[in-house]
UniProtKB/TrEMBL annotation:
Top-level taxonomic group: Bacteria
Gene3D superfamilies named in the record: 3.10.310.50
Cross-referenced InterPro entries: TPM_dom
Listed name of the protein: TPM domain-containing protein
Cited Pfam families: TPM_phosphatase
Chain ranges of the TPM domain: 3-116
Amino acid sequence: MKDTITPEDEQQIENAIKQAEENTSGEIRVHIENKCEIDVLDRATQVFAYLHMHQTALRNGVLFYVALKSHKFAVLGDAGINAVVPPNFWNEITSLVIGYFKQEKYAEGLAKGIIMAGEQLKTYFPNKGESDINELKNDISYGKD
């Protein structure tokens, strides 16, 4: 993974998370691993739980899940988000990110998708100003392989 995602890429992705979260109380995480042996949404759900993303106060966590070598990607929102957004809410983000992935522009695709998610989330979960706290880390989590 580290041969695909450079330290500069990590910085670009983490900056996008920070920028996106300035507009919303939503919390965004990115998890990258090489292989996904099961359905991508099932694996994203496992990672979501592993990262304790369901523990945000408004249940408004968002996971960008990437399996590089398996060529799988998913965006998964928590119950609080999915209760209020339209059914196709994640489709536009997914299409955008996958378009960049097909060009092997992983960091750029994730960064643009994250910014788009932040813009869309601010409608439903606006930033609460000084009372808004960062509930989840902004760093990228990595799988074992």
